Each structure stands twice: as structure tokens, then as C-alpha cells.
Amino acid sequence: MLTIASRLDVMNRLGRAMADPTRSRILLTLLDGPSYPAELAQNLDLSRTNVSNHLACLRGCGLIVTTPEGRRTRYEISDPHLTRGLRQLLESVVAVDEGAPCVDEKCECCQ
Questions:
Q1: Which domains does the chain have, with CATH numbers?
Q2: Does residue 69 sit in helix, strand or coil?
Q3: Cβ distance 52 to 43 under 8 Å?
Q4: Spatial distance between the Cα atoms of 53 and 16, rounded to a whole number of angstroms
Q5: Per residue in 11-29, pLDDT tens?
Q6: pTM of the predicted model, to two decimals?
């Protein structure tokens, strides 16, 4: 059973991962299935270095795992529960006025 502190840690890891648009794009791509850094870079129009750095962050947060396959490494979301949770989150209705800026002056997305 998760403690309050461990639940907070999980929320912080998810928040950190999803706060960055590139990491969010990578997670969205991995929702469709495992992939490789070179494919992610090409499909997302990013440099391999950029993808590699973001994959390292996502892996460090425990959100993705790797599987060595010869000279390549396959990346995928670490747990089916996380995959289901992210999909459910995407299906949730969030009241957002697309034209209105965030009202929280401390929010990083507003700066």
C-alpha cells in the first residue's frame, strides 16, 4: 500500500514528466506501443540527443522501461496501469478556455 509520501512522489514524477511538451509527446507516442530513440526522433521531428535526454528523464522518473535488442534499445511505458491511467486522463473532460491564459502567476506554463 502506498503511503502519502510515496503517492506524492508518484504525482510529482508524473507532473514533471507531463509538464514538458516534448516528454508529453514521447509519452503519447509510447501509448501506441514500444519504440526506439531513432524512430521517436524521426517521427517527432526532434534530434536524437534531445530524445535521448527526455527518455533518460522519463526512465529516471520510472515511467518508461528499456529492453535491449542487440544494438538497439526499445522503450515502452513501464506499467499497463500507467498506460490505462494516461489514456483515461486523455479522455477526461477538462474545462479549459483555449483562448484564455493560465491565471496562476506561479505556473510555469504561463511564463
A1: 8-86 (1.10.10.10)
A2: strand
A3: no
A4: 14
A5: 888 888 888 999 999 999 9
A6: 0.80
